[in-house]
Design brief:
76% of the residues lie in helices and 0% in strands. By secondary structure, the chain is mostly helical.
Length: 135
């Protein structure tokens, strides 16, 4: 019997998270490296995309934790989890290991660190997928 809180089989769940995660990461980095770094200042405060990622991940994770019965809502929550996670994983090394300048954001250290964290996220997601298939 399927769990009503899990409206999709494991492979669909994996893809609903993985595709937005990879697409968001690729689009962000392509934009930043080709078009340049731009900033958002709501209310005069610099907001990194890490914050937008957190604003996506937390509500999605909370909703998924309690189960979502509506198929479209579940798809949106899973996609938000993937996309928001990409935003968060992309900025960890930039904000922790650099001085957080515009040049630092498009540096090899920031890109390399982001690739490592995205790869670790993909590996974790894959491990959870394989574990769920065996259960």
């Amino acid at each position: 019997m399927s769990d009503p809180r899990q409206p999709f089989p494991p492979k669909q769940t994996l893809l609903f998270i993985l595709i937005p995660l990879l697409a968001t990461f690729a689009c962000q980095r392509l934009y930043l490296h080709l078009a340049g770094v731009t900033h958002v200042y709501p209310g005069g405060i610099l907001v990194h995309h890490l914050f937008f990622g957190v604003l996506m991940v937390i509500p999605a994770a909370f909703a998924l934790a309690f189960g979502i019965r509506q198929r479209r809502t579940a798809i949106v929550a899973l996609a938000a989890l993937g996309s928001g996670s990409a935003m968060i994983l992309d900025e960890i090394v930039y904000l922790v290991a650099t001085k957080a300048s515009d040049g630092d954001y498009v540096s090899g250290l920031s890109l390399g660190g982001a690739l490592v964290f995205i790869a670790l996220g993909v590996v974790l997601l894959g491990a959870l997928y394989w574990r769920s298939r065996r259960e």
